[in-house]
Structures are given as structure tokens and as C-alpha cells.
TrEMBL record:
InterPro entries: Aldolase_TIM (IPR013785), Ribul_P_3_epim (IPR026019), Ribul_P_3_epim-like (IPR000056), RibuloseP-bd_barrel (IPR011060). HAMAP family: RPE. SUPFAM superfamilies: Ribulose-phoshate binding barrel (SSF51366). PANTHER family: RIBULOSE-5-PHOSPHATE-3-EPIMERASE. The keyword Isomerase applies. This is Ribulose-phosphate 3-epimerase. One of its GO terms (cellular component) is cytoplasm. The lineage of its organism: Bacteria, Bacillati, Actinomycetota, Actinomycetes, Kitasatosporales. Binds 1 divalent metal cation per subunit. Keywords: Carbohydrate metabolism, Cobalt, Isomerase, Manganese, Metal-binding, Zinc. Its cofactor is a divalent metal cation; Zn(2+); Mn(2+); Co(2+). It comes from Streptomyces spongiae. A divalent metal cation binds at residues 31, 33, 64, 173. It catalyses: D-ribulose 5-phosphate = D-xylulose 5-phosphate. Substrate binds at residues 8, 64, 140-143, 173-175, 195-196.
Length: 228
């Protein structure tokens, strides 16, 4: 089971985004946090920056929309060049319709859940998705400490994915670092968003390789992966 490392440009130097994208060479995706200062108490970037970034890097963009009215705005990020678009289920009026629209436009559709949002009510939606994102911090700011209490939720999500035989990626975002990535992988995650752990490192590309190696080693002995 291959682990994917998605560096979060929220932790990069916004004045040098093209260079920062290149600095994390070898990353599977670049994670782009879009915040509107309504759904979360922070404001970052929007469609024009995503368009520019898509032109500046060969690494596909994984856009995480922490915004209100996701049904209206998410499709525009596919048009801007994102290869994967994640909407928060708490901000989507019609998540199935939205996931289908994202897919129809040619991107991977992903659904994110805040720490307090359970996965179980959305079991029947999983087949409509390409990825589920379990937030391991409260969304809105980078650099937060990993919430260990999310590990059981990651396990339950992986169990639901396996129960239905889905080829669904399970992403974690928040406080992912050398000290937490193995626990996330053991619990069932296979896509890891890392911000300061990559962009706070002296060599971001080396940090990506190291995190991937840790995650893959943990996955190799994880019960869920062996069963898979």
C-alpha cells in the first residue's frame, strides 16, 4: 500500500509559492488550503492563486475548501486546475450532487469532516467519493497539535471503506509529522497532509521522502493493510 505525502502550502512562503512548490519535489500532491474567514476564522487564497499555482508546478493540486457554500464554489476550483477538490460535509447542502459534479468536471471528489463530525452518518455517501479527509485538528490554522482522539475515527472510517470494498483514499490533515505519521498510517490513513513538518524542514524534499518511508513502514505491518 503506497503512502502519499501532500505538503500543505499554508506553511510555505506565500510570496514565493512557485519556488516553494518546487522545493517539495517528490510530493504526490500539493495541498492547497482555501479559507474564507466564514467557515473558519482565517482567510487565505482563492481561485486566482490556484490558477497561477497550477501553471507553475507539475505536481497536482489537492484543494481543501474550508469555505461556506461549497456547492457553489467547489466546481470553480476544478476549472482553476485542481486535480482533487475537498469540500466539508458541514458546508455542503447536497454532497452527493456536488461530488458527482466535481467528478464530471474531471477531478477527484473528496469530503472532509471536522473533528466533532462522525463518519457513520455518511457511510452511504462513500461510494460517491474518491477520498475522505479526517481532520486531526480544528480547521482554520496551521501549526496545531495533533489530536490523538481522532485515531479511533480514522480506524472506523477505514473499516467502513473496507466493508464496502471501496478503493477510497483516506487522508489526514493536522499536526502530521515524524512523531504522528506512523500512528495515522497504523490506524488506516494512506494520504498525509504535512505543513510545517515539510516546509519547516531544512530540506523539504528530504522531509517528504522521510515521512513517506515512515508511513509505508507502519502500513506494512498494520492490520487493516494486511487484511486488504
Amino acid at each position: 500500500m503506497a503512502a502519499q505525502i501532500n505538503p500543505s502550502i499554508l506553511s510555505a512562503d506565500f510570496a514565493r509559492l512557485a519556488d516553494e512548490a518546487k522545493a517539495a519535489e517528490g510530493a504526490d500532491w500539493l495541498h492547497v488550503d482555501v479559507m474564507d474567514n466564514h467557515f473558519v476564522p482565517n482567510l487565505t487564497l482563492g481561485v486566482p492563486v490556484v490558477e497561477s499555482l497550477a501553471r507553475a508546478t507539475q505536481t497536482p493540486l489537492d484543494c481543501h475548501l474550508m469555505i461556506e457554500d461549497a456547492d457553489r464554489w467547489a466546481p470553480q476550483y476544478v476549472e482553476a486546475g485542481a486535480g482533487s477538490v475537498t469540500f466539508h460535509v458541514e458546508a455542503a447542502a447536497a454532497p452527493v450532487r456536488l461530488a458527482r459534479e466535481i467528478r464530471a468536471k474531471g477531478a477527484r471528489a473528496s469530503m472532509a469532516l471536522k473533528p466533532a463530525t462522525p463518519i457513520e452518518p455518511y457511510e452511504d455517501l462513500l461510494a460517491e467519493l474518491d477520498m475522505v479527509l479526517i481532520m486531526t485538528v480544528e480547521p482554520g490554522f496551521g501549526g496545531q497539535a495533533f489530536l490523538d482522539i481522532m485515531l479511533p475515527k480514522i480506524r472506523r472510517t477505514r473499516e467502513l471503506i473496507s466493508k464496502h470494498g471501496l478503493e477510497l483514499w483516506l487522508q489526514v490533515d493536522g499536526g502530521v509529522s515524524a512523531s504522528t505519521v506512523e500512528r495515522c498510517a497504523e490506524a488506516g490513513a494512506d494520504v498525509f497532509v504535512a505543513g510545517s513538518a515539510v516546509y519547516g524542514a531544512e530540506d523539504p524534499a528530504a522531509a517528504v521522502r522521510s515521512l513517506r518511508a515512515q508511513a509505508e513502514a507502519a502500513t506494512a505491518t498494520a492490520a487493516w493493510a494486511c487484511a486488504h
